[in-house]
């Protein structure tokens, strides 16, 4: 049923004030009454209905031929916000009210009877009112789409597309432009925070039920605020999390490896990548003042349960102005062993070897080797400085090793310069012939000493053997030779029980019961990573 409206004196004043730039006129409700049983002709002086029986939220609004067209519905059951119970009445009068409580327009109705459900009858009536004003766009209308749902006229889509979240109405909106009203609205939207505003020639302000979702086209695809959900307190991101159901997207490989994106799901393929990605690096010697963590088979190292992506050039560290034992801007000490770790910031740090390392048991980082007591420092290598507090890497001093992607390392010492001894027990023949090396506790070291020797006394032998850290290892190559005689021999030894850290191998020699032995030999070794 379509009905014209008589604009009241108070309504005319409110419209004129709005058009003149004064207080915004916001239409919010339609009231229906029974005129006290005596139908009448409306008059401009009215400020209320004669006998209001039901008040309905505005269900929809449009601008047609310069007039504001408003729909209101009387449902089968008619309790309302005024706490009136469901009841039957003759619909003899109707009025449109503003949000401020002003009767803007009044209409005479047909006096048809609206029965209550208790009579066994169910009647749903839709009424359409036309309000002719000079500039409809100056007026705002609050609607309640749930009223339409109640009569089956519109099924609300689960997703609704909006053009943004604003606090102030835009100056020249396109037809159909829709916005989420922010937390501090102004102008025609003042007092209507969190509602939906749609431009239909006037601003139609819609209440939104808790749980409703919208898509904000002003936000980039993948942005946290692109999908919004209505809550009791306003609008929040609709992205799924471990605390709330919501919109979810598939994680990228980088996100899956990092494990820090709570709003993305993993496919079996990305899960497989995430599970295997760790230790894609190798610590190497660059120069006396630089080591570098290079990429090896990828670029990921897991730190504190997150994936740290190494830059293409790797991560460098100097022997000065570095972090040592958690203290920044320190210089490395001379002749000192350090564990090298990678932190969450992607920088290398040094920890004295005595700090130790351990396999982490923290959820999300289980099995990762870390500095003891520091689960956010992933072990990547070990260094031993020389007497100049610098890094060293030569055939006789292997002072940089990697925890990841280990390879066999060769060592070769200088030849002893015809060293002599009269000792009947094994002694080191020549200190400068030592070969120094770092090793992890789980590595094996194959070592040997090869050379020549003779005893200056006929009938006495000479023997050449391998020493580790100055201690003879129990296997030797020996010979018996007279005065002026010379023998060649090799002594070999394989160790897989060396403690972690810096060791040295040295040629050791002995004579029999007498005489003096003369030796020329060198130590060689291979660290099997």
Description:
- This is Phage tail fibre protein N-terminal domain-containing protein.
- There is one protein chain.
- By secondary structure, the protein is mainly β.
- It has four domains: 2-151, no CATH class; 159-237, no CATH class; 281-405, Tail fiber receptor-binding protein (Trefoil), CATH 2.80.20; 409-528, Jelly Rolls (Sandwich), CATH 2.60.120.
- 6% of the residues lie in helices and 47% in strands.
- The chain contains four helices and 44 strands.
- Strands 1, 2, 3, 4, 5, 6, 7, 8, 9, 11, 12, 13 and 14 form a 13-stranded mixed sheet that branches. Strands 32, 33, 37, 38, 40, 41 and 43 form a seven-stranded mixed sheet that branches.
- The radius of gyration is 44 Å and the shape is rod-shaped.
- Residues 149-156 have low confidence and may be disordered.
Q: Note the main sheet.
A: 13 strands, mixed
Beta content: over 45%
Assign an overall shape.
rod-shaped
Alpha carbon gap, first and last residue: 89 Å
**What is the helix content?**
under 10%
Mean of residue pLDDT values: 85
SSE blueprint and pairings:
Layout: E1 2-4, E2 6-7, H1 9-19, E3 26-33, E4 52-64, E5 67-74, E6 89-98, E7 103-114, E8 125-132, E9 140-143, H2 146-150, E10 159-162, E11 165-166, E12 178-181, E13 196-199, E14 203-206, E15 213-216, E16 227-231, E17 234-237, E18 249-250, H3 253-258, E19 264-265, H4 268-276, E20 281-287, E21 290-295, E22 300-303, E23 306-309, E24 315-318, E25 322-324, E26 327-330, E27 337-342, E28 348-352, E29 357-359, E30 369-371, E31 374-384, E32 393-394, E33 397-398, E34 400-402, E35 409-412, E36 419-421, E37 427-428, E38 435-439, E39 444-455, E40 461-468, E41 471-480, E42 487-495, E43 501-511, E44 517-528
Parallel strand pairs: 1-8, 3-9, 9-14, 10-15, 11-12, 18-19, 33-38
Antiparallel strand pairs: 2-7, 3-4, 3-6, 4-5, 5-8, 6-7, 12-13, 13-14, 15-16, 16-17, 20-21, 21-24, 22-23, 25-26, 27-28, 27-31, 29-30, 30-31, 31-34, 32-33, 35-44, 36-44, 37-43, 38-43, 39-42, 39-44, 40-41, 40-43
């Amino acid at each position: 049923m379509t009905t014209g409206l008589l604009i009241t004196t108070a309504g005319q004043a409110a419209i004129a004030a709005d058009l003149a730039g004064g207080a915004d006129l916001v239409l919010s409700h339609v009231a229906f009454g029974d005129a006290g049983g005596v139908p009448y002709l409306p008059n401009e002086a009215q400020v209320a209905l004669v006998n209001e029986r039901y008040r309905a939220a505005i269900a929809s609004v449009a601008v047609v031929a310069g007039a504001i067209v408003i729909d209101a519905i009387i449902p089968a059951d008619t309790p309302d916000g005024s706490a009136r119970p469901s009841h039957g009445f003759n619909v003899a009068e109707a009025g449109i009210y503003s949000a401020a409580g002003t009767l803007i327009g009044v209409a005479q109705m047909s006096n048809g009877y609206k029965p209550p459900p208790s009579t066994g009858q169910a009647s749903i009536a839709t009424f359409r009112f036309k309000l002719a004003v000079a500039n409809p766009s100056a007026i705002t209308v609050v609607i309640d789409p749930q009223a339409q749902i109640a009569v089956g006229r519109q099924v609300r889509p689960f997703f609704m597309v909006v053009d943004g979240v604003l606090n102030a109405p835009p100056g020249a909106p396109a037809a159909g432009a829709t916005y989420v009203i922010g937390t501090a609205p102004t102008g025609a939207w003042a007092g209507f925070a969190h509602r939906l505003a749609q431009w239909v020639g006037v601003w139609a302000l819609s209440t939104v039920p808790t749980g409703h979702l919208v898509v904000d086209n002003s936000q980039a695809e993948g942005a946290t605020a692109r999908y919004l959900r209505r809550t009791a307190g306003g609008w929040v991101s609709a992205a799924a999390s471990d605390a709330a159901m919501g919109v979810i997207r598939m994680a990228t490989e980088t996100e899956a490896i990092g494990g820090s994106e709570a709003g993305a799901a993993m496919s079996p393929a990305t899960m497989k990548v995430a599970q295997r990605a760790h230790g894609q690096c190798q610590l190497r010697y660059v120069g006396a003042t630089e080591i570098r963590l290079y990429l090896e088979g990828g670029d990921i190292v897991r730190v504190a349960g997150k994936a740290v992506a190494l830059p293409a050039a790797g991560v460098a560290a100097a022997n000065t102005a570095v972090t040592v034992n958690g203290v920044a801007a320190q210089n490395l000490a001379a002749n000192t062993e350090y564990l090298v770790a990678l932190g969450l910031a992607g920088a290398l740090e040094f920890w004295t070897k005595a700090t130790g390392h351990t396999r982490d048991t923290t959820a999300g980082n289980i099995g990762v080797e870390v500095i003891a007591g520091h689960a956010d420092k992933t072990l990547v290598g070990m260094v031993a400085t020389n007497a100049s507090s610098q890094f060293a890497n030569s055939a006789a001093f292997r002072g940089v090793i990697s925890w990841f992607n280990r390879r066999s390392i060769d060592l070769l010492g200088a030849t002893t310069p015809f060293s002599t001894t009269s000792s009947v027990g094994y002694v080191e023949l020549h200190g400068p012939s030592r070969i120094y090396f770092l090793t992890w506790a789980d590595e094996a070291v194959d070592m040997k000493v090869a050379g020549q020797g003779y005893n200056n006394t006929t009938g006495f032998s000479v023997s050449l053997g391998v020493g580790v850290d100055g201690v003879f290892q129990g296997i030797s190559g020996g010979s018996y030779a007279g005065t002026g005689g010379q023998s060649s021999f090799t002594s070999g030894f394989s160790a897989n029980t060396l403690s972690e850290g810096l060791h040295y191998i040295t040629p050791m020699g002995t004579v029999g019961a007498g005489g003096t032995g003369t030796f020329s030999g060198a130590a060689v070794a291979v660290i099997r990573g």
